[in-house]
Amino acid sequence: MKKILLSIIIWIVGSILTIILYLAMLLLTIVLYPFDKRRAIVHAQCFWWSDLVIRLNPYWEVKVSGLENIDKNRTYIIIANHQSLADIVLAYQTKMQFKWVAKKSLFKLPFVGWSLSLAKHIKLERGNFSSIKKVYKEAAYWLKSGISVLFFPEGTRSQTDEMGDFRNGAFKLAIKEHLPILPILFKGTGTAIPKGSWVFTTKTKALLKILPPIETTGYKPADFATLKDLARSALEEYPLSQP
Asked: Which of 10, 51, 80, 117 to pair with 20, CA 20 to 30 A apart?
């Protein structure tokens, strides 16, 4: 009974925080519309939201490391493994300006999806070739504007302790735009949100680790597979099943 009551409180508080986040982002979008074209201030509201969601969940123990590998004056192609929706919460602990590449269905979720739209994140419709072309066009636009773009190169959440195959697009784009790859590792988030239930039952130790950037200087367009393998190898040095 205690776990059920605590889970109810967690979901209610989390929902209230998300509604407040959306309202704050909506207000700032309207007030700052002529001055915040990149939605940087709007995006930054997710930083306090992430802090509170993590701190107010007694079942989450989150560790962040590698922040020194982020140069706030550089633009990156960010690549990360994907375990659950909790990855979204943790990613804002980087306090970076970035645009997600996220599946279109997420943008339809009340408050969460509406917030993604307000921050001008990038919609991807899986299996739609024209949508994929549009994604890379939008991503290139933001990169040229000095905003990093975050890709989940697996394309979907991993259902095991192993990373899925990486897709090529992010690495081709990094070479084309002459930008470094910033690998980010999520560990433990696969159990952060209960599967098949809404009740939190076990404590989760989650890790967000930012790895050193991988420079793309000297890479030719045909070298994207080499770059992809290098980035994957960097992430695989820290097994997802490792405590």
From this structure: 80
Alpha helices (H) along 56-154: 86-91, 112-118, 129-144
Residue 10 main-chain phi, psi, to 5 deg: -60, -45
**What percentage of the chain reaches a pLDDT higher than 90?**
72
* Contact of 208 with 65, CB cutoff 8 Å: yes
Q: Would you say residue 119 lies in a domain? A: yes
What is each CA distance from 233 to 163, 183, 185, 207, 217, in whole angstroms? Answer: 11, 10, 12, 18, 19
Structurally, how many domains does the chain consist of? 1
172 with 205: CB under 8 angstroms? Answer: no
Which value, to the nearest 10 degrees, does the dihedral of the CA atoms of residues 18, 20, 23, 25 take? -70
Strands (E), 34-172: 60-65, 77-80, 98-103, 122-124, 148-151
For residue 205, what is the domain's CATH number? 3.40.1130.10
Give yes or no for residue 241 having a pLDDT over 90: no
Residue 190 vs residues 153, 196, 217: alpha-carbon distances, Å: 17, 13, 34
Confidence of residue 156 (pLDDT cuts 50, 70, 90): low
18: tokens are: 């998300």
Within a domain: 219: yes
Here the tokens at position 37 are 């074209």
* Token code pair at residue 198: 């809404």
CA dihedral 57, 121, 131, 86 (to 10 degrees): -10
Sign for the CA dihedral angle at 47, 48, 53, 55 comes to positive
Q: How far apart are CA 18 and CA 30, in angstroms?
A: 18
